[in-house]
TrEMBL record:
Keywords: Transferase. The keyword Transferase applies. This is Glutathione transferase GstA. One of its GO terms (molecular function) is transferase activity. Residues 87-201 form the GST C-terminal domain.
Amino acid sequence: MKLFIKPGACSLSPHIVLEELGLPYETEVVDLARKTTASGQDFLAINPKGYVPALLLDSGELLTEGPAIVQYLADLAPEKQLAPANGSIARYQLQSWLTFIGTEVHKSFSPFFNPKAPQEWKDIARANLERRLAYVAQQLEGRDYLLGSEFTVADAYLFTVLNWSKFIKLDLGAWPPLLAYQARVAARPAVQAALKAEGLA
Ligand SMILES: N[C@@H](CCC(=O)N[C@@H](CS)C(=O)NCC(=O)O)C(=O)O
């Protein structure tokens, strides 16, 4: 398996999951501006969507979209319990979190990384982000991880997007449960390994 990544981008989420699972894999960095891979390949020929993460399977198939990739990976090693069993209500709760993080949190960061984004869009996105993070903080009160006491792939994704708050000067100190959560996830050896591999530790 090869995971196409950009250090620190949303591809960190499946990278963390791969480390948690301990499965063999490799990564290749993509230059997202030029749409070329580190080995000089045309990334658009690999993934016409032109974005990371993208997971190239040993079968030659390509899987895209972070929430699908992390669930695929978790299902490769169900004994690691990074996702509840398919069909269980807990699995749909996981998908609910993955969707929320993707559409309500991740994408609210987008204008801050877009040099062409007008200030008005950034202001709206920041207000949305603050509302959504307040909700997440409330949900994390009294629990270690999003689904309860066990780390799941949703935590890999939330941790990844929370990391971006420093780039937009959003102080997570406003939500103590989020700060505690961030430290808790960062302390996991697999998370440290992925961060180190991406030059972020
Ligand atoms: N819907 C995609 C979004 C992925 C995404 O936003 N990737 C960003 C990095 S975090 C990217 O590669 N952007 C470059 C581009 O769109 O050209 C997913 O959830 O996987």
